[in-house]
Design a protein that fits this description.
77% helix, 5 helices, Protein Binding, DinI Protein, Chain A, 3-stranded parallel sheet
């Protein structure tokens, strides 16, 4: 009985050591910092900001038209019809803005993913996680990824 207990403890110890060895092949990045420090992110935000500003102006103009119609004493049915027309007019611009946001974000994510894979391969890391899921251990690759992206 004692031999079985010793054998089980030895197996558990070996399994623990081998699992601990695998923690050396885990890296992590601070995804928010990578996005913030990547040069292309600010370019994408600037491009998106211009489109947002244009949409905002169109939206504000439509709001002014509605407010003027209310002050002029238009009937609720007329106001509702006018509101729907203005919303329909703004819909394509809104969709374009949302599509551009998705495209730019997707492009940045793909570039970051490629950089993470490249850095991980260089340093021999098999798995890279977001910093938020790491409690202890692992290797911080954040700065290396930012450097790779901004080359």
């Amino acid at each position: 009985m004692r031999k079985i207990l010793v054998a089980l403890l030895a197996i558990a110890f070996i399994a623990g050591v081998s699992q601990a060895a695998n923690f050396n092949s885990i890296g992590f990045i601070d995804v928010q910092k990578v996005f913030k420090d990547y040069k292309e992110t600010s370019k994408a935000q600037s491009e998106l900001g211009k489109k947002e500003e244009s949409f905002k102006k169109s939206f504000e103009e439509s709001q002014k038209k509605l407010e003027k119609a209310e002050k002029d004493g238009k009937k609720p049915e007329e106001l509702e019809k006018m509101k729907k027309e203005l919303e329909e007019k703004l819909a394509p611009e809104r969709e374009t803005l949302l599509r551009l946001n998705a495209e730019l974000t997707g492009k940045l994510q793909q570039e970051i993913l490629k950089a993470v894979q490249k850095v991980a391969k260089k340093v021999g890391i098999e798995m890279v996680l977001d910093k938020q899921v790491i409690i202890t251990g692992g290797m911080d690759l954040t700065e290396m990824v930012v450097t790779e992206l901004n080359k």
